[in-house]
Design brief:
14 helices; eight-stranded parallel beta sheet; binds zinc ion; 2 domains; alpha/beta; single chain; Urease, subunit C, domain 1; 417 residues; TIM Barrel; four-stranded mixed beta sheet
Length: 417
């Protein structure tokens, strides 16, 4: 065998087990594996999980925070304009360099699958999508990257974007994006959804839209997206991110929309740390949290995932490409703190996100890809609390990253202040 992880504690199981990997795939999970492997890792009863999956991140904008001018008006509008300034001139190689640094940061944190959004529109043309396609090729052996062709300035609002979107898909983008709520009218928002589905059909592509990313209860594109998904028979292939307006709807209408989302088989991707920062800015007290109805969606049986969204860009100044950090934010922002709920937030950055990206052979069963994380923690709660990277990140049976954390308390002994 290529690799055996010994005494691994899988989530939901009391007894440690050995996990054996051969030719890039998990071939054995047993209390004790008698064979020897070229490399062995003794997990010593610590937690072992499948890798993190980040279903939503804007890698074309990542780390612009290091070089951008200050946002003097401290508004979202100026953040958008700062991004335009870059998009008018930045070269493909610049995107690959910045995005590559984030991919490598993410691998150290255990993210082996990433859905990366590339702006497509008349401001930046196809440069971002070309950059992220080059990135996908460069890191193909390390990370599964899906590139989303994303119309950041709208389709009806940005004449020419529809043609560019088709070209982006023809270039090889994996997923078709959308931003219906950003259009000028409800009519245009529906037309936007229709255009995206037409292109999705042409390329047999999955759909991932940013939906109702606003506190405005009049923003109702999630309802139309759900109905469209049902009518197109596209269940399981559509994700909707943010959906902040769902939190602002009255409970009766919200329940109806959640029912439609469930029936349509749409994944909701909530990026709660970003929503906490960007939503509710115009509220006087009490200020809304801006998080979509995560608990209600989960209770209804909807697949809910969480992503990093932004890494040090004009929209958000932080981000370590750590899905463990994202999960911790989700626990706080969505009120998920009881033991079974902590397992749920871990699902949101692992198995639920993998379902959104339709990753094959994901898990820790024989037949799954030989990808896993060994944690310096006995369980999910401790991993979330400690916020340390995995001690070992394994892809295809090979250790691709490892982290050792050392800390020493220097004290003069009892009574030291
Ligand atoms: Zn986003």
């Amino acid at each position: 065998m290529q690799l055996i992880v010994r005494r691994a504690r899988r989530r939901g199981t009391a007894e440690p087990c050995d996990i054996g990997i051969a030719e890039g795939a998990i071939v054995a999970v047993a209390p004790v594996i008698g064979d020897r492997a070229a490399r062995e890792i003794d997990a010593g009863g610590r937690l072992v999980t499948p890798p993190f999956v980040n279903p939503h991140v804007h890698l074309d904008k990542a780390r612009l925070g290091e070089v951008m001018r200050p946002n003097r008006s401290q508004t979202l509008q100026e953040a958008i304009e700062i991004t335009w300034d870059f998009k008018r001139t930045y070269p493909e190689a610049d995107i690959v360099a910045r995005a590559g640094a984030v991919i490598e940061m993410g691998v150290r944190e255990g993210a082996l699958a990433v859905r990366a959004f590339a702006d497509v529109g008349t401001v930046g043309g196809l440069v971002p999508v070309r950059g992220l396609l080059a990135l996908r090729a460069r890191y193909a052996d390390l990370v599964r990257i899906q590139v989303v062709a994303f119309p950041q300035e709208g389709l009806l609002r940005d004449p020419g974007a529809e043609t560019l979107l088709r070209e982006a898909m023809a270039l090889g983008a994996d997923v078709i994006g959308g931003l219906p709520w950003y259009e000028m009218t409800d009519e245009d928002a529906r037309r936007h959804v229709d255009i995206v589905f037409a292109i999705a059909r042409e390329h047999d592509a999955d759909v991932h839209m940013l939906v109702d990313d606003t506190d405005d209860a009049n923003s109702r594109s999630l309802e139309y997206l759900a109905v469209k998904t049902l009518r197109e028979g596209y269940g399981g292939r559509v994700s909707a991110s943010h959906c902040g307006a769902l939190a602002a709807y009255n409970d009766t209408y919200a329940a109806k929309v959640i029912g439609l989302v469930k029936d349509a088989g749409i994944t909701i991707v909530s990026n709660p740390h970003i929503s906490l920062v960007l939503a509710g800015r115009r509220d006087r007290e009490p200020v809304r949290r801006g998080i979509t109805r995560v608990r209600e969606l989960l209770r209804a049986g909807v697949n809910v995932a969480s992503g990093q969204d932004d890494v040090d860009d004009p929209y958000y100044p932080f981000g370590r490409a750590s899905q463990l950090e994202v999960a911790l934010f989700a626990a706080h922002a969505a009120h998920l703190t009881y033991p079974d709920e902590l397992e749920t937030v871990f699902d949101m950055v692992t198995v639920n996100a993998a379902r959104a990206m339709r990753l094959p052979r994901y898990g820790l069963e024989p037949g799954c890809a030989g990808d896993l994380l060994v944690w310096d923690a006995p369980g999910v709660k401790e991993a979330l609390t400690r916020q340390r990277p995995p001690s070992h990140v394994v892809r295809g049976g090979a250790v691709v990253a490892q982290t050792t954390v050392t800390s020493e308390l220097i004290t003069s002994g009892a009574g030291a202040a």
